[in-house]
Amino acid sequence: MAESKFHASDFELAPDHVLRRWRLPALAIGCLALAASLVGANTSPTQFYQAWLVAFLYWLGLALGSTAILVLQHITGGRWGATIRRPLEAAAATVPLMALFFLPIVIGLPILYEWARPDVVAHDHILQQKLFYLNKPFFLARAAVYFVIWSVISRQLVSWSTEQDVNGECMKRARRVEFFSRAGMMLYVLTITFAAIDWGMSLTPHWYSHIYGLVFGIGQVLTAMTLMIMVTAMTADRRPMSLVATPERFHDLGKLLFAFVMVWGYFNLSQFLIVWSANLPDEVPWYLDRTTGGWQVLMIVLLIVHFFVPFGLLLSRSFKRNPRTLVRVAALLLLARYLDLYWWITPAFYPGHFTIHPLHAATLIGIGGVWTWAFLTNLARRPLLAFNDPMIALELEKA
Amino acid sequence: MDSAPVQSRQRPYKPPVLGRGQTFDTVTDQISSVVDRTQQPRAWWIGFGIGFVLLNLLLVCVSCLFAWGTGIWGVNNPVGWAFAIINFVWWIGIGHAGTLISAILLLLRQDWRTSINRFAEAMTLFAVACAGIFPIIHTGRPWVAYWLLPYPGTMMVWPNFRSPLVWDVFAVSTYATVSALFWFVGLIPDLATLRDRAENPIAARIYGTFALGWRGSVRHWHRYETAYLLLAGLSTPLVISVHSIVSFDFAVGVIPGWHATIFPPYFVAGAIYAGFAMVLTIAIPLRRMYDIKDYITGQHLDYMARVMLATGLMVCYGYLTEAFFALYSANLFEQYMIQNRMFGPYTSIYWLLILCNGISIQALWFERVRRSPVFLFIICMFVNVGMWLERFVIVVTSLHRDFMPSSWFMYYPTIWDIGTFVGTLGLFITLLFLFIRFLPMISMFEMRTLVPAAEVKEEH
């Protein structure tokens, strides 16, 4: 029986744990990089906003992807979900912070988005027809709605989970969590679809693709999963986390990562094949912009590091069961996620002409440092395991 | 907080998937008794009779088609594709649930699949057989059907490898092969059981031949489990790939209403949705007919209904994106396509589709509905119809009014179109009833692993 074997304090992140120690350095590096970005923003504002958008979407992916996995695991159950629930919640709780990082995009709206420039719209027949959707007030209102929905979902799930630590398992709450998560899942899919259209697709305002939102969503889920694997592997070195984060759990997480990689490839292939084979003048430029002038190199790199290498490695059972090897492929994918977003977003500004700017690094590290600090602080604040979850209790009992 | 001890707790609640009081013997006896008995219940004869009559209708329709040509169908310019492709996609889609249940749910360790996987796989095979008829007959010249295959002939005529219709040939034939193999491999231990129980020497001989000399030794089981898992792994991508390719049949065209990048996942979700509806359509009467409610319990109905709800919502997401992007695209043709679907000459079909696929399934949010065989059966009927209508809407409303108003025409099915479709239903029903009569419809050896006495500490 688990009765007296463990105390809640056993599950806290150890005071000397590397994840705890990284918090302040992360914040410091983040602030420095943010300061550097702001300096850069003065001299080259256009590049700043362009870089900020990619970095914002990248880190948003960690927060929202975690929210999505969180609701998914509340719906489907499974031990894997209970094992990574706390890191998921720690990442999901950063959604309000990401709303803060959205502000520069609000300011840079006319610089980033063609449809927000009245002089362009005045001469563009198609954009005039799209004014009902692509206009500033509606855009901002939608963004506000997205952030409110995401914050409510993550806040509510985190608070119920904390309550469980104190009050123990409660069937009534479990039902409520499941019901709430179903609604949360539907809302996530809908909001991420429209957020992807607003923030990414409308950069090329004439172009549209029905699957865009799903590609975006699976990218976020994949990003979050890589982080969860890395955090679980880093905390699995000590008891009692090591009792729960067994090779079986890494196997589960590895299989999910494998599945997400394949879904990412599947959605991308769906879009590519349909656009390529129809070869219509109003669709195919999106790919032409991304496969010429140096962008094709990035695309090939992406294919290799985002699909073929992880696919080949994750096929192996022993590879997935060993946290040390699994972490490597997770880290590779975490990097590849940025490349993917870069390839997805930046060619909209520089079609057929590969470009990179130091501000990309500065914004990536800037938002990332602060985000990492917030994430690790959330993680350190509560026990690392939802120890009152029946799945976890069962694992601990067996151990 | 620090002092709060971890409280002792019960095991996480996992609802049982098998009725109470079942043992190894009762499982084997009850399931194989359906096959062993000489006299089938009256319901079996009625069902088989209906199927057989309709099967003869298929023979008549197909014979007339071959004699008189495709002119007897309602197809004409611009709707050159209608019932044949609609029925093909509908049947192929239905098949997907069987593969999902047998392969993906096996890999996901969902042991409730055990009660339904056998007949779901059989359903897959029969559905693929019904689907396969249409590409072969739709030209009216089935004797040249081999032209679909790339073969080195003296005329050097090759199919267009860039056409998804050619990929379809490979995808569907692979799918049929793997499904048949998977089904057969799954049957082997049960065939051996039937062989050992058969009193009729001829039946024993036949079952014995197909049991491939199965003796149930440890080595047999060891190899068997490995082979089964490998086949499950092989089948899994097929669930996705076959219907993705079917969706490419439409999506690579440039017709508004067909050319949407969401089509592959949207079609796959629709296929699984339709398939689960069909599995339930079969399971609900079956459990009544043979009194096997201990094997296909309320829990099973609940789980299948949940899958239906989830995939149904994905399909609704597809409808939503189509409507939104028509609006967002600022493309005259896209906008007209949706307007025409919603308020054009086929408007009633579109709204009927929304009613069947979008609105009726909302009842599945309630557990009481999910566990009620009657309600669930009614909803499944709605979905069966709805998914057929969906293909009708996609195929016909997109084709009948495309870019040029001077070539707009209406499509109406003839009696032969309807007869052929109803005829394939007959083929499906006939095969299904023969299967129930001659083979165990539930996997006995897998069910035996669910019996409480078989419970072992499993480590994966």
**How many DSSP H or I helices of chain B?**
15
The main β sheet of chain B shows up as: none
Class per helix and strand makeup of chain B? mainly alpha
Classify the beta-strand content of chain B into a percent band. Answer: under 5%
**Radius of gyration of chain A (Å):** 22 Å
Q: Helical content of chain A, roughly?
A: over 70%
How would you spell out the order of helices and strands of chain B? HHHHHHHHHHHHHHH
Count of individual domains of chain B = 1
- Which whole number gives the mean pLDDT of chain B? 87
Q: What characteristic shape of chain A results from the CA principal axes?
A: globular
Domain module count of chain A = 1
Tell me, rounded to a whole number, the average pLDDT of chain A.
91
Order of helices and strands of chain A: HHHHHHHHHHHHHHHHHHHHH
Main beta-sheet annotation of chain A = none
Structural class category of chain A: mainly alpha
Question: How would the global form of chain B be characterised?
Answer: globular
Strand content of chain A: under 5%
**Which protein chains are joined by the largest interface, and how many residues does each one contribute?**
A-B, 50 and 40 residues
